[in-house]
Amino acid sequence: MIFGTGIDAQEISAVQKLVERRPRFVDVILTANERAVFDERKGKHQWEYLAGRFSLKEAYSKAIGTGIGSAVHWHDLETDYTAQGAPVLVKHPYDKQYQAHISISHTGDSVHTSVILEDMASLTQPVSSHRPAWLEISASALAHNVAYIKELAHAERFMAVVKANAYGHGLPEIVTVALAAQVDGFAVATLDEGVWLRHFGVTLPIYILGVTPANQANILADQQLTAIVPSLNWLNEALAALTVAQKLPVSIGVDTGMGRIGIRDEAELLATVQTLQAAVDKVDFQAIGMHFATADGAGSDQAYFEKQMARWHALVDPLDLPATVIKHQANSASALWHDQVIAHDMVRVGAGMYGFDASSGVLEARATQPVLSLKAELVHVKQVAAGESISYGATYTTTEPTWIGTVPVGYADGYARLLQGADVLLPDGQRAPIIGRVTMDQLLIALPTEYPVGTVITLIGQVGQEEITLVDLADRLATIPYEVATGLSPRLPRRIVN
């Protein structure tokens, strides 16, 4: 979550003149280490450096919400360079609370800086790495899905949708394996998710699929996050929020029947395109896209899909768009089952990349592979007599002497309380039922015989010929596999496996 942002601009020549009048100004602004860098530089590079640090420290104080001399002083802030030569704050007074993202750019006689302070709590959540329960993320399955869907859809570009902690799979892990699978970009739902990806080191295009408030366009531009343009009013407000040196990458959203966001009026769409073409110094018009509501269905759903396609062509085909503008329509379902009619410039794939059947078996099976498995070790094993009640509410009572295993996974991990009675898999592929209520951090299973503590239990995944899928759990919960996956808690560690 972003705590605060600050933007500042200074004239380099004005800073130089100020130093000529007040030579001590250099030491007021720069720390000893920064002064050493300043002294090493010559001519205009020296003054660019000083003006940049002056402006950056002003921007930082604005991000804090105060001013220099109040909550922060000049020497509280110090910059250095990364191995790639990018400036970085190596010291600032709130480094334990906020991650600082900085930008320094020079245009002629001007230096422009921005500082984004991101709450560290949003970057790091407690992970129970010492508890024997974890998710496994299959790098080979994800790579297979990317290549398979890209070929099936005849797509030139594959955009990996990693919103909502990568559909619960774990953002760092999925981004890592997706980059190895050579995806062409990423899509997220929120500005903060996009900023996180940039902080993680992603340099590929990043699309924000949700609407970002127009007054935050400066952050989008600074981080080079592609914003969806949901209306002409939004675009005009966003343009007004940009600084002179900023350029905002955008993709127009067209509403053909999903009804959430986007432009559905022909005149407004034309005016939006014309506004973008007239503002080439302030925007990078990258793409235009839509979203299907029923691409994963049959019957009347197929008729509605075709209705949306007809609306798209009626709205978009008459537009005189630059050849560089990417057309993107396809979500997972339309990429998997409608490649003959969708735009092939780019597909935006979330569910399919993770191996979900978006149609829930309604449409022809596709050869995607599940990426996620949930496993845990038995932490306690005991035998109880017949007639003993198990777990909260005494909802289960043994009818014979029974070996019971305790598994350290519960509803706080996203394994729902209503999954009492579901099966788990033992190492030999045998199924074992969950008995008694699933509790916050643990559940209990009935074992066919005594198993040693440390035995690996599979709650989601495949063992031999037996498999428990996200769809299986979703069916028991009367929901969809997306909800089950995104509900898996960040406290479960994610492990990349091959």
Automatic annotation (TrEMBL):
Keywords: Cytoplasm, Fatty acid biosynthesis, Fatty acid metabolism, Isomerase, Lipid biosynthesis, Lipid metabolism, Magnesium, Metal-binding, Pyridoxal phosphate, Transferase
Entry keyword Magnesium: yes
EC identifiers of the protein: 2.7.8.7, 5.1.1.1
Positions carrying N6-(pyridoxal phosphate)lysine: K163
Pathway(s) served: Amino-acid biosynthesis; D-alanine biosynthesis; D-alanine from L-alanine: step 1/1
Residues noted as binding substrate in the record, renumbered to the chain: R260, M440
Residues the record lists as binding Mg(2+): D8, E58
GO molecular function: alanine racemase activity; holo-[acyl-carrier-protein] synthase activity; magnesium ion binding; pyridoxal phosphate binding
UniProt cross-references to SMART domains, sorted A to Z: Ala_racemase_C
Catalysed reaction, written as an equation: L-alanine = D-alanine; apo-[ACP] + CoA = holo-[ACP] + adenosine 3',5'-bisphosphate + H(+)
Biological process terms in GO annotation: D-alanine biosynthetic process; fatty acid biosynthetic process; peptidoglycan biosynthetic process
Cofactor(s) the record lists: pyridoxal 5'-phosphate; Mg(2+)
Ranges annotated as spanning the membrane: none
UniProt cross-references to HAMAP family, sorted A to Z: AcpS, Ala_racemase
Matches recorded under PANTHER family: ALANINE RACEMASE, ALANINE RACEMASE, CATABOLIC-RELATED
Function: Transfers the 4'-phosphopantetheine moiety from coenzyme A to a Ser of acyl-carrier-protein. Catalyzes the interconversion of L-alanine and D-alanine. May also act on other amino acids.
Name assigned to this protein: Multifunctional fusion protein
Taxonomic source organism: Weissella soli
